Amino acid sequence: MDELQIRLFTADDAPAVSRLIIRNLTEVLVSAYGETAMQALAAHYRPVDVVTRARDRYKIVSELHGEIVGTASLAGDRVSDLFVHVDHHAAGIGSELLSAVEGEAWRRGMNEVYLMAGLPARGFYENQGYVVVAPELHDVDGYPIELLRMTKALPDTIGRDAPA
Ligand SMILES: CC(C)(COP(=O)(O)OP(=O)(O)OC[C@H]1O[C@@H](n2cnc3c(N)ncnc32)[C@H](O)[C@@H]1OP(=O)(O)O)[C@@H](O)C(=O)NCCC(=O)NCCS
User: Does pLDDT of 66 surpass 70?
Assistant: First the structure.
């Protein structure tokens, strides 16, 4: 997608990023985890939470015609918070964001990254070369959420064009 731009997150992006993530939780991931658990998780993605968490990680957004359509982060060797606007799923945005954070990890000298995948995203990550290590149960305000720990060895050929 030519018009798609990936850039570093700024605090001004927080309201749009918050809305985008909450829509994914309550409209997509709800089918796997249920309404109550997703409402509990959504409460951790207010704009202020997004800004606070961004401080200790590399965080990027993708923009299409001035609208934020995706986000992803890298915290240490963990890829996290990969979400694409629900109106733009399956358009290649998620894979571009994932390549960008993997490129940044590689630039920082890492040979492998890991992530905690939501169950519906397993196929997407497997397509991108991740393998399941083990399921893990996470507690969100008393609600158990099963995630899959997945890892990927970064090839030497990985892109170096992540926003710095
Ligand atoms: C999972 C997600 C990040 C993928 O981003 P996306 O922009 O929709 O995916 P892309 O268009 O880049 O997909 C790339 C490939 O993966 C496939 N794919 C996308 N989502 C998939 C899924 N859930 N399962 C299996 N394959 C999937 C696409 O069909 C495409 O295949 P192709 O290259 O053969 O055409 C996005 O759909 C999303 O935000 N989902 C809801 C939230 C979520 O699960 N986030 C991850 C939390 S761990």
Answer: yes
pLDDT band at 156 (very low <50, low <70, confident <90, very high): confident
Model confidence, pTM: 0.93
Which CATH class name applies to 5-153? alpha beta
A 10 A CB-CB count for 57 gives 15
Q: What residues does each domain of the chain span?
A: 5-153
- What are the pocket residues of ligand 1 if the criterion is a CB atom closer than 6 Å to any ligand atom? 24, 28-29, 82-84, 89-95, 117-118, 120-121, 123-124, 127
Task: Transcribe 16-77 into DSSP letters.
Answer: HHHHHHHHHIIIIIHHHH-HHHHHHHHTT-SHHHHHHHHTTSEEEEEEETTEEEEEEEEETT
Residue whose CB lies within 8 A of the most ligand 1 atoms, among 124, 147, 148, for a mutation test: 124
